[in-house]
Design a protein that fits this description.
about 400 residues; alpha/beta; Purple Acid Phosphatase, chain A, domain 2; 9-stranded mixed sheet; 7-stranded mixed sheet; globular
């Protein structure tokens, strides 16, 4: 979380109803030079935090009440003014597709089978704010913004989905359901929060997305979903018992040929360090629970990448969209740079076959193509941070970053 400022949950095994969505988006390999579809692959677009509230919500066609409860800023309109002070005027109101900018075009060219993001915004008109200092919400009437980017699944296991109380969470779930966008990681009770979103990639089988949250990311303990209490699927530590519980839930849901994603909100917002227990958890999710991809988020900038036994681990995807342009002091980590991760996996084994990273810059609350210098900086930084995992990141001629692994 970023503004002008910045406990042991209950764990329960079991699964309730799953939420699914059919994806009719075309598919193709990750490289722009080849556009012939290959039935043996599933191509996924994965991103880190998508924050559509506060300043961004104010420039969309149906802005919320701008009232905020932060220490230094009391109106969401001030975040628009701060950004304009840095990068010039921002049009308002904008159309629903404005914020996605060049990213929408780039993904359209590559046609991933499914698009999965961590939605770090409550979609609600609720005025019951949690007294936590930073509260993100988007007016439900602006949900067409997500539809404009053809998002298939929103992961909700994060530290902002209950910013506007349980009423805000319930309205978020209802809003996504009306828009026919799948979700994972939160629900009306623990059974729903722990159940996967079931996505269908046309002609390529099912992709199951499980959402998990750790208190290390700032999720309050009291937000954990209960037997009859709406909330987040908070992971009770990284013990063998917790992993076994997850593995049992996966086995009860998985069908032959399914590709499984563990989308997990963990760790701090800033810094490149990856704790040992985080890496152990990622490995356990693959070895014991059988996941094919660990989709980590919470960090406001991209972190190191590992390919472990053929399976992709993204330790921190970085923010994909936010309203932080006018906030000073974030320069060293380049939080203004966003990455779209395109993972091509075998439809039969789930193993990673290709990983491309598309770099963008958030400017005027819009994703624009990163320039040559920014792409080179990202490639150097991610290569440095991924070396310890046996992964190399290179910059190609078209400005696309590519991962190579042992």
């Amino acid at each position: 979380m970023v503004g002008m400022q910045q406990a042991a949950p209950v764990s329960a095994c079991g699964a309730g109803r799953s939420r699914g969505a059919d994806a009719s988006v075309g598919s193709g390999p990750l490289t722009a030079s080849s556009n012939s579809p290959e039935r043996g692959h599933v191509t996924l677009f994965l991103s880190g935090d998508v924050m559509l509230g506060r300043g961004i919500d104010q420039i969309l066609p149906n802005p919320s009440d701008p009232c905020l409860y932060e220490s230094f800023i009391t109106s969401a309109k001030d975040y628009v003014a701060l950004a304009e002070r840095v990068n010039g005027p921002i049009p308002s109101p904008v159309d629903f597709g404005y914020v996605w900018g060049d990213a929408a075009h780039a993904l359209g060219l590559r046609a991933p089978d499914l698009r999965i993001v961590n939605l770090e915004t409550s979609i609600t008109k609720s005025g019951l704010h949690e007294p936590k200092g930073i509260n993100y919400r988007m007016n439900p009437a602006n949900i067409a913004c997500l539809k404009a980017m053809r998002i298939d699944c929103c992961v909700l296991a994060n530290n902002h989905v209950l910013d506007w109380s349980q009423a805000g969470l319930l309205e978020t779930l209802e809003s996504l359901e009306r828009a026919k966008i799948a979700y994972a990681g939160a629900g009306r009770a623990h059974a729903e929060a722990a159940s996967p979103a079931i996505l269908k990639a046309k002609g390529r089988g099912r992709v199951l997305v499980f959402g998990f949250g750790l208190t290390t990311s700032g999720i309050p303990t009291k937000w954990a979903a209960g037997r009859t209490r709406a909330g987040v699927n908070v992971l009770d530590g990284t013990s063998a018992k917790a992993i076994t519980c997850i593995a049992d839930g996966v086995r009860s849901r998985r069908l032959p040929g399914d590709l499984l994603i563990a989308s997990i909100h963990w760790g701090s917002n800033w810094g490149y360090d990856i704790p040992v227990d985080q890496r152990s958890l990622a490995h356990d999710l693959i070895d014991t629970a059988g996941f094919d991809i660990v989709h980590g988020h919470s960090s406001h900038h991209p972190k190191g990448i590992e390919v472990y036994r053929g399976k992709l681990i993204l330790y921190g995807c970085g923010d994909f969209l936010n309203d932080y342009e006018g906030i000073k002091g974030l320069g060293p980590f380049r939080g203004d740079l966003a990455v779209a991760y395109l993972a091509q996996c075998s439809a039969t084994t789930g193993d990673l076959e290709m990983l491309s990273l598309l770099p963008f810059q958030i400017r005027n609350f819009r994703l624009t193509q990163a320039n040559d210098g920014d792409r080179a900086w990202l490639a150097t930084t991610l290569n440095r941070e991924s070396k310890a995992f046996g992964t190399q990141i290179t910059l190609g001629q078209e400005g696309v970053l590519t991962a190579h692994w042992q």
